[in-house]
């Protein structure tokens, strides 16, 4: 394996992808460093799968430039042999069983670890001899997850890999991912809308919304970058005046406002002085807040009157 | 456990600090590896490493090449000093603020503190029995 260090392995410049009358990617520019676990997050239809498709040469961009391992990936075996892409609905030849799927993966991926694949199959209680067509939805997802992990490709994409996997099986996936990544550092790009489940596994977060990159930052920098204050409407309004507001909610005289920014010691003291409660905002809540409208403004003399009159 | 309010690497550093302060991790004893922290807390290994490395930079931990990470001599005293300063800001100042609000004077506050001490002792004794 080449050095998985922090050098850029993917570079995307001004990439746009249009289907008939929709723009799935809108002038996207992005760099991906080697050796990290990335989260590619966003709503359904935001452009996550399209982005992964053009990066893995499953589709071609309408305009813009893509470099993966320094070269355009399209019809480029040198690049594609270093990439593993596990899709939400991964297809396999009809008469294959899981064992045969693993055997062909072993031929394609030079870092394939057969013993690891076997161990994972045991973990997921996957029947290896049963034809893939006859597997349950969750078992089918397990086949993809196993190939994605055991291939140890330098660049691995998981696009919502866990349809049909229950909470226990998903936890097995996360645990094995962390363990194996600890021993074999590589670049993993995980697309998920189960944001709370994966948040702590990510080193870097990319949020895409309506074909544009909305957040591209270290997970640790995002953590604690917003907070919610709850209390009497007037006091909340006094505290939040002049701050960047992401979301407001109110119930009778109570207001709950999510504010962008890190809470300083002084800010915490001020909130305490005003008798306000301060709560952290999870990555999932932050993304929801930032992909939605903030809501009606709070008036200084009480709660949001607009909300009170609405049904 | 890990919460949402602050960077995870800071929380990992604090968890290790806590163990050093309360003696669970003695000076010169070995600290779990970053991979063990990552697996146990289900966090990104690079993030766990950042927390551990912060304590190395501060002289709380030190590396033995090829063996692992150890608690430095004098680490506990260093941490206790720092924690006392934090205690003042995190607990004493808000306490004084709330006391002012309720019109509790200095002497009354002192009385309350000693009362809390006796009550804690009584509870601990009854728990022990």
Describe this protein's structure:
- The complex is a heterodimer of chains A (311) and B (129).
- Chain A is α/β, with parallel strands linked by helices.
- Chain A has two domains: 8-219, 3-Layer(aba) Sandwich (Rossmann fold); 226-309, 2-Layer Sandwich (Alpha-Beta Plaits), CATH 3.30.70.
- In chain A, 33% of the residues lie in helices and 28% in strands.
- In chain A, the strands form three sheets. In chain A, strands 5-6-7-3-8-9 form a six-stranded mixed β-sheet, sandwiched between helices.
- In chain A, helix 4 (114-123) runs antiparallel to helix 5.
- Chain A starts with 7 loop residues before the first strand and ends with a helix.
- Mean pLDDT of chain A is 89; it is low at 300-311.
- Chain B has helices at 8-21, 34-41, 45-57, 75-101, 106-128, and strands spanning 30-31, 61-64, 68-71.
- In chain B, strand 2 and strand 3 form a beta hairpin.
- In chain B, helix 2 (34-41) packs across helix 3.
- The longest helix of chain B has 27 residues, at 75-101.
- Chain B is elongated, with a radius of gyration of 19 Å.
- The model of chain B has no long low-confidence stretch (mean pLDDT 91).
- The A-B interface holds A 36-37, 174-175, 178-179, 181-183, 200-203, 219-221, 223-224, 227, 265, 269, 272-273, 280-283 and B 2-9, 34-35, 38-39, 41-47, 50, 89, 93-94, 97.
How would you sum up the global shape of chain B? elongated
Helical fraction of chain A: 25-40%
Adjacency order of strands in the biggest sheet of chain A: 5-6-7-3-8-9
Radius of gyration of chain B: 19 Å
Mean residue pLDDT of chain A: 89
Query: For the report, how would you describe the main beta sheet of chain A?
Result: 6 strands, mixed
Topology:
The complex is a heterodimer of chains A (311) and B (129).
Chain A: E1 8-19, E2 22-33, E3 37-41, H1 48-55, E4 63-68, H2 77-80, E5 83-86, H3 98-108, H4 114-123, H5 137-150, E6 155-159, H6 167-183, E7 187-191, H7 195-198, E8 204-209, E9 212-218, H8 219-222, E10 226-232, H9 233-240, E11 245-251, E12 254-260, H10 265-273, E13 277-280, H11 283-290, H12 305-309
Parallel strand pairs in A: 3-7, 3-8, 5-6, 6-7
Antiparallel strand pairs in A: 1-2, 1-4, 8-9, 10-12, 10-13, 11-12
Helix pairs in contact in A: 4-5
Chain B: H1 8-21, E1 30-31, H2 34-41, H3 45-57, E2 61-64, E3 68-71, H4 75-101, H5 106-128
Antiparallel strand pairs in B: 1-3, 2-3
Helix pairs in contact in B: 1-3, 2-3
């Amino acid at each position: 394996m080449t050095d998985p260090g922090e050098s850029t392995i993917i570079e995307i410049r001004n990439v746009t992808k249009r289907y008939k009358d929709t723009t799935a990617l809108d002038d996207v520019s992005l760099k991906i460093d080697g050796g990290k676990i990335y989260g590619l997050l966003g709503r359904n239809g935001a452009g996550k799968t399209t982005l992964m498709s053009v990066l893995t040469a499953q589709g071609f961009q309408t305009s813009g430039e893509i470099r993966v391992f320094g070269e355009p990936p399209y019809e480029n075996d040198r690049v594609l042999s270093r990439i593993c892409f596990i899709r939400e609905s991964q297809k396999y030849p009809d008469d294959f069983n899981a064992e045969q799927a693993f055997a062909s993966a072993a031929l394609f991926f030079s870092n394939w670890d057969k013993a690891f694949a076997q161990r994972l199959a045991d973990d997921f209680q996957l029947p290896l001899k049963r034809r893939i067509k006859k597997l349950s939805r969750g078992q089918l997802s397990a086949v993809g997850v196993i190939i994605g992990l055991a291939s140890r490709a330098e660049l691995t994409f998981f696009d919502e890999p866990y349809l049909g996997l229950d909470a226990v099986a998903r936890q097995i996936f996360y645990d094995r991912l962390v363990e194996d990544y600890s021993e074999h550092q590589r670049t993993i790009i995980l697309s998920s809308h189960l944001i709370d489940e994966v948040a702590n596994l990510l080193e870097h977060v990319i949020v895409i919304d309506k074909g544009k990159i909305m957040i591209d930052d270290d997970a640790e920098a995002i953590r604690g970058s917003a907070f919610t204050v709850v209390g009497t409407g007037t006091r909340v309004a006094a505290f939040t005046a002049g701050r960047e507001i992401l979301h407001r909610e109110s119930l009778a005289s109570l207001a709950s406002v999510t504010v962008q920014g890190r809470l300083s010691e002084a800010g915490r003291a001020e909130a305490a002085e005003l008798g306000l409660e301060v709560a952290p905002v999870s990555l999932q809540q932050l993304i929801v807040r930032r992909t939605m409208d903030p809501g009606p403004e709070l008036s200084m003399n009480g709660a949001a009157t607009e909300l009170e009159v609405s049904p | 456990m890990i919460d949402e309010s602050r960077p995870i690497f800071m929380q990992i550093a604090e968890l290790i600090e806590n163990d050093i302060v309360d003696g669970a991790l003695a000076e010169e004893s070995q600290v779990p590896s970053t991979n063990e922290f990552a697996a146990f807390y289900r966090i990104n290994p690079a993030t766990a490493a950042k927390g551990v490395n912060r304590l190395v930079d501060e002289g709380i931990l030190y590396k033995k090449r090829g063996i692992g990470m150890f608690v430095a001599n004098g680490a506990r005293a260093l941490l206790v000093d720092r924690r006392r300063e934090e205690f003042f800001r995190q607990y004493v100042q808000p306490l004084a603020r709330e006391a002012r609000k309720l019109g509790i004077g200095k002497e009354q506050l002192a009385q309350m503190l000693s009362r809390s001490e006796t009550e804690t002792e009584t509870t601990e004794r009854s728990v022990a029995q």
